[in-house]
Amino acid sequence: MADAAPRLESLVEQLLGAPLPVRIRAWDGSEAGPPGAPVLVVRNRRALRRLLWKPGELGLTRAWVAGDLTIDGDLYTALGLMAGLVWERGDDSRTLVQAVRDPDVRAAVRGLARLAGPFLPPPPPREEVRRGRGHLHTRRSDKRAISHHYDVGNDFYEIVLGPSMVYSCAYWEAPGATLEDAQRDKLELVCRKLGLKPGQRLLDVGCGWGSMAIHAAREHGVSVVGVTLSQEQATYARKRVAEEGLADRVEIRVQDYRDVVDGPYDAISSIGMAEHVGADRYLEYARDLYGLLKPGGRLLNHQIGRRPQQDESAYSVDAFIDAYVFPGGELAPVGTTVTQLERAGFEVRDVESLREHYALTLRAWVGGLEAQWGRAQSLAGPGRARVWRLYMAASALAFERNRIGVNQVLAVRTPESGASGLPLRARTWHG
Question: What keywords would UniProt list here (predicted)?
Answer without folding.
Answer: Lipid metabolism, Methyltransferase, S-adenosyl-L-methionine, Transferase
